[in-house]
């Protein structure tokens, strides 16, 4: 059986990434369109994270592993850096990655680790599979 | 939360347990489960209509674009999950549906928060 990043557990992972891609992007666009002056940096960061999620979703769904690795790497760096630097008290002024994704049940913190683990699993299964 | 949101959350909970059992027993969802999810989607359409009436009336400064965004967004979750799920008839495909019925009540919570923040 050939392995792919979109089958098996990857099926579920792609859906979760898709939900975050839609939620983060749509929310940031609405915030930038209706109340950009309240927290322009946070909303722009949310839009950036939304785009990263879109790319990661697409890469995982089409088995583009190098793109997936780069985008999930950016995602992990983003949530760690933004999560460390930004602790807003008001969730309406926060970005997706503020406070390590606290406003989203910390899923944004867990997701990149799961994504990297999955890429590693699929890669290992490939090396162990058809070649031997 | 509104009565409709509580009712639909209860349906989501039932569907989640049901899907969990199917995954554990490695069975595929049947017509009755799909009918339940269809009913859930009808409830979400009703919520959209009620929500639009609410924001058209005296909404006291609620963020209308965000509120309507969540109402419309909640309609996309189940159909997207269905399409993505039937692409792979396995435990994982069923797991996609499980994620979807967990996401929907989370969107109810956000709607509730937005309405409460007036």
Give a quick rundown of the structure.
The complex is a heterodimer of chains A (132) and B (118). With 132 residues, chain A is mainly α.
List the topology elements:
The complex is a heterodimer of chains A (132) and B (118).
Chain A: H1 9-35, H2 40-61, H3 65-85, H4 107-128
Helix pairs in contact in A: 1-2, 1-4, 2-3, 3-4
Chain B: H1 3-25, H2 31-56, H3 64-86, H4 91-116
Describe this structure as you would to a colleague:
- The complex is a heterodimer of chains A (132) and B (118).
- With 132 residues, chain A is mainly α.
- Chain A has one domain (15-122).
- Chain A is 70% helix and 0% strand.
- Chain A has 4 helices and no strands.
- Chain A has helices spanning 9-35, 40-61, 65-85, 107-128.
- In chain A, helix 1 (9-35) packs antiparallel against helix 4 (107-128), helix 2 (40-61) packs antiparallel against helix 3 and helix 3 (65-85) runs antiparallel to helix 4.
- Chain B has 118 residues and is mostly helical.
- Chain B has one domain (3-116).
- Helices cover 83% and strands 0% of the residues of chain B.
- Chain B is built from 4 helices and no strands.
- Chain B has helices spanning 3-25, 31-56, 64-86, 91-116.
- In chain B, helix 1 (3-25) runs antiparallel to helix 4, helix 2 packs antiparallel against helix 3 (64-86) and helix 3 runs antiparallel to helix 4 (91-116).
- Chain B is elongated and about 50 Å long.
- The two termini of chain B are 14 Å apart.
- Chain A binds chain B through residues 7-12, 14-16, 18-19, 22-23, 26-27, 30-31, 33-35, 92, 105, and chain B through 63, 65-66, 69, 73, 76-77, 80-81, 84-85, 87-88, 90, 92-93, 95-96, 99-100, 103, 106, 117.
């Amino acid at each position: 059986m050939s392995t792919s990043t979109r089958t098996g557990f990857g099926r579920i992972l792609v859906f979760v990434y898709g939900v975050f891609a839609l939620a983060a992007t749509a929310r940031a666009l609405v915030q930038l369109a209706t109340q950009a002056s309240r927290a322009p940096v946070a909303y722009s960061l949310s839009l950036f994270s939304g785009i990263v999620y879109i790319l990661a979703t697409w890469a995982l769904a089409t088995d583009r592993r190098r793109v997936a690795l780069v985008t999930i790497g950016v995602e992990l760096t983003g949530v760690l850096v933004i999560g460390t630097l930004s602790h807003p008290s008001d969730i309406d002024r926060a970005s997706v990655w503020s406070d390590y994704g606290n406003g989203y049940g910390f899923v944004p913190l867990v997701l990149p680790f799961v994504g990297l683990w999955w890429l590693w699993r699929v890669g290992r299964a490939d090396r162990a599979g058809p070649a031997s | 939360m509104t009565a409709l949101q509580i009712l639909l959350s209860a349906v989501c909970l039932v569907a989640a347990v049901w899907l969990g059992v199917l995954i554990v027993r490695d069975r595929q969802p049947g017509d009755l489960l799909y009918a339940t999810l269809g009913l859930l989607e009808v409830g979400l359409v009703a919520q959209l209509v009620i929500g639009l009436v609410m924001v058209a009336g005296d909404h006291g400064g609620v963020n209308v674009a965000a509120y309507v965004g969540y109402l419309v967004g909640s309609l996309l979750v189940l159909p997207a999950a269905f399409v993505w799920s039937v692409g792979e008839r396995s435990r994982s495909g069923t797991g996609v549906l499980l994620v979807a019925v967990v996401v929907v009540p989370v969107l109810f919570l956000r709607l509730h928060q937005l309405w409460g923040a007036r």
